[in-house]
User: Which sequence fits this backbone?
């Protein structure tokens, strides 16, 4: 038992078990809330800066600081829509970034699938197919679309 004098001069009795129960519930609530807090997703610009800029450059023109170390110059990402009849090729861009290249196993660009691991959302392709896709991959592709000339 735990005794405490109230402001009115009356002794208040607390059971140690009640105090411990209260503390354990408070701690459990804090743990649950911490586990449920979700880190805000990175913006497309941040994903680009952290993963692509070193090769493709700040503006996506293919002039990044690592260009001299590569056997083939990186693609100019600003011309993707122009090279596709004025339409940004979102699905092909996401396939290339994610790393699924089919038979082209010797591609120079690294696979970024594991780097872009994030909650999957349904992305609707131009032909109406609904494809479960990592949300970070969609965010990055949307950012690349903003870089088009």
Assistant:
């Amino acid at each position: 038992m735990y005794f405490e004098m109230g402001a009115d001069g009356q002794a208040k009795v607390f059971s140690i078990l009640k105090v411990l129960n209260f503390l354990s519930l408070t701690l459990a609530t804090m743990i649950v809330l911490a586990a449920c807090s979700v880190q805000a997703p990175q913006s497309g610009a941040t994903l680009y800066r952290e993963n692509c800029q070193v090769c493709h450059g700040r503006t996506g023109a293919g002039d990044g600081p690592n260009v001299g170390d590569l056997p083939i110059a990186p693609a100019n990402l600003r011309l993707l829509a122009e090279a596709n009849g004025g339409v940004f090729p979102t699905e092909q861009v996401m396939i290339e970034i994610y790393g699924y290249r089919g038979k082209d196993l010797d591609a120079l660009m690294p696979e970024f699938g594991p780097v872009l691991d994030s909650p999957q959302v349904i992305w609707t392709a131009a032909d109406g197919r609904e494809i479960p896709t990592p949300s970070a991959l969609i965010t990055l592709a949307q950012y690349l679309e903003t870089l088009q000339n």
In short: The radius of gyration is 27 Å. The mean pLDDT is 82. The helical segments are 16-36, 44-51, 53-56, 90-98, 135-146.
